[in-house]
């Protein structure tokens, strides 16, 4: 489509790919070292979280280097596959690997304190609010596909890089705002998170259908149709996992409340066996 | 136990099982629609070029809500079991109501009012529309009748849901 660009990729491709591989290797090495340090201190780290991290880093990297990233410059379908990997699959895998929990365990006291102060800061509160995170994530997509930005991204390497980085970061922020075990002092309630999840899933699906109906400038209709359906299905698949995680959190939280009520009720019954008023008070307080 | 009324009977609407059943009914019919008519028969279209944008919006929201309802229905059912307030008959009655509601919504609002897509293309539509909506109405009416029967008969031995004041949350 754009010969000048293809030439650039062919001549400078190999060395720039090697440079781009460096952050991938560093990210995996740092995480794995942290788990090894933890084990030496006698605190084992679940192996599946390490797997999540490695898979997440690789999924994210696939949008920047390798055959898929190269094809994404030419084909809308490959672009969409890269977008789903970088903006949805990688963030989910990375959040599930709980990097902040691992960091807080591994770092020495001072940097750990700094990290936790950062997480508690008002700025983190704003950025990790589900509405803000969803606006950055899904809103960014609307901007990309409904303005000339997509066309520009396919021409300009730097814009391409920045757009992909934006989706990786915004996707992470969004996923972290909704689910996961990492400490999140500002995390919103389950209802808010559920509403935002359903709305952003809807916005994602609506955008996919609009792309099908009205392809972005420069994208042939047949490619747009395949890409849009891929976006629709892929978005559903990742959001399905998010919904399960959110509902599972609701289920666990409800279970804790039930157990707490049962415990306080039986305690109240032990202390004042024939006082229905007492146990009702207990229930009212915990509900 | 306190709070949990020990009287049996009462409307199925006060049971989590009923609501979980209806959520799963809605989701099940949505899934049947998606799998049978969109994927297997390919009668419905993803987008049929005459779909107005407003219909795309409403469909997108509905689809997202279905996905959520499908998962949440299962967890709500598990919750009812955990609370030992699970009432299978109420869950099935709710399931029928959910099936019928979605079928009718799809047949009347999606196909006819919003004209999102049609049941099938290149054929006389009327018999399809009549069969579609009659099936939906049949499911809905049987669900409602079953609900009324259960409400009159009461449930055998299961104490009423402790959270009857807040049926869903």
List keywords for this structure.
heterodimer, A: 287 residues, mainly alpha, disordered C terminus, B: 169 residues, 64% helix, elongated, disordered N terminus
The rough form of chain A would be described as globular
Largest interface: A-B, 32 and 26 residues
Main sheet of chain B?
none
Q: Give the termini distance of chain A in whole angstroms.
A: 62 Å
Uncertain stretches of chain A:
1-11, 274-287
Rg over alpha carbons of chain A: 23 Å
Structural class of chain A: mainly alpha
**Biggest sheet details of chain A:** none
Could you tell me how far the N terminus lies from the C terminus of chain B, measured between alpha carbons in angstroms? 21 Å
H and E string of chain B: HHHH
| Percentage of residues in helical conformation of chain B | 55-70%
Radius of gyration based on Cα positions of chain B? 18 Å
pLDDT averaged over residues of chain B: 77
Number of strands of chain B: 0
What shape does the CA trace of chain B take? Answer: elongated
Strand content of chain B: under 5%
Name the helix and strand elements of chain A from N-terminus to C-terminus, one letter apiece: HHHHHHHHHHHHH
Count of DSSP H/I helices of chain A:
13
Describe this structure in words.
The complex is a heterodimer of chains A (287) and B (169). Helices cover 83% and strands 0% of the residues of chain A. Chain A has 287 residues and is mainly α. Chain A has one domain. Chain A is globular and about 75 Å long. Chain A starts with a helix and ends with a helix. The N terminus and C terminus of chain A are likely disordered. The relative contact order of chain B is 0.23. Chain B is mostly helical and 169 residues long. Chain B contains four helices and no strands. Classes of the chains: A mainly alpha (287), B mainly alpha (169). The interface between A and B is medium-sized, with 32 and 26 residues.
């Amino acid at each position: 489509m754009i010969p000048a660009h293809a030439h650039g990729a062919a001549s400078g491709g190999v060395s720039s790919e090697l440079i781009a591989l460096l952050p991938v290797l560093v990210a995996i090495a740092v995480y794995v070292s942290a788990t090894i340090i933890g084990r030496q201190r006698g605190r084992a780290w679940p192996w599946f979280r390490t797997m999540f991290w490695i898979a997440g880093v690789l999924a994210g990297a696939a949008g920047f280097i390798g055959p898929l990233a190269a094809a994404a410059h030419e084909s809308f379908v490959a672009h969409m596959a890269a977008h789903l990997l970088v903006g949805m699959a990688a963030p989910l895998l990375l959040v599930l690997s709980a990097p902040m929990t691992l960091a807080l365990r591994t770092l020495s006291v001072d940097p750990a304190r700094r990290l936790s102060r950062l997480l508690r800061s008002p700025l983190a509160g704003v950025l990790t609010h589900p509405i803000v995170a969803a606006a950055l994530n899904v809103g960014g997509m609307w901007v990309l596909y409904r303005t000339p930005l997509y066309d520009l991204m396919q021409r300009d390497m730097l814009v391409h890089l920045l757009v992909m980085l934006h989706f990786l970061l915004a996707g992470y922020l969004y996923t972290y705002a909704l689910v996961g075990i990492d400490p999140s002092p500002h995390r919103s309630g389950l209802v808010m998170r559920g509403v935002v999840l359903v709305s952003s899933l809807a916005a994602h699906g609506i955008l996919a259908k609009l792309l099908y109906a009205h392809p972005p400038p420069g994208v042939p209709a047949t490619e747009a149709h395949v890409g849009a359906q891929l976006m629709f299905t892929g978005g559903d698949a990742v959001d399905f996992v998010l919904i399960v995680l959110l509902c599972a959190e609701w289920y666990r939280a409800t279970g804790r409340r039930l157990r707490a009520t049962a415990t306080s009720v039986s305690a109240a019954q032990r202390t004042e066996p024939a006082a229905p008023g007492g146990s009702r008070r207990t229930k009212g307080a915990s509900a | 136990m306190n709070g949990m009324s020990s009287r049996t009977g009462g409307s199925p609407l006060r049971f989590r099982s009923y609501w979980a059943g209806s959520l799963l009914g809605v989701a099940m019919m949505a899934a049947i629609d998606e799998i049978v008519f969109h994927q297997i028969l390919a009668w419905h279209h993803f987008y049929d070029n005459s779909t107005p944008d407003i219909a795309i919006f409403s469909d997108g929201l509905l689809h997202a809500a279905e996905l959520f309802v499908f998962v949440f229905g299962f967890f709500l059912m598990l919750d009812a079991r955990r609370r030992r307030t699970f009432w299978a008959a109420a869950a099935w009655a709710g399931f029928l109501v959910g099936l019928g509601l979605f079928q009718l919504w799809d047949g009347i609002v999606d196909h006819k009012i919003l004209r999102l897509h049609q049941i099938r293309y290149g054929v006389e539509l009327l018999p399809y529309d009549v069969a579609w909506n009659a099936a939906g109405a049949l499911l809905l009416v049987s669900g409602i009748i079953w609900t009324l029967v259960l409400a009159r008969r009461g449930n055998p031995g299961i104490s009423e849901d402790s959270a009857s004041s807040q049926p869903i949350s």
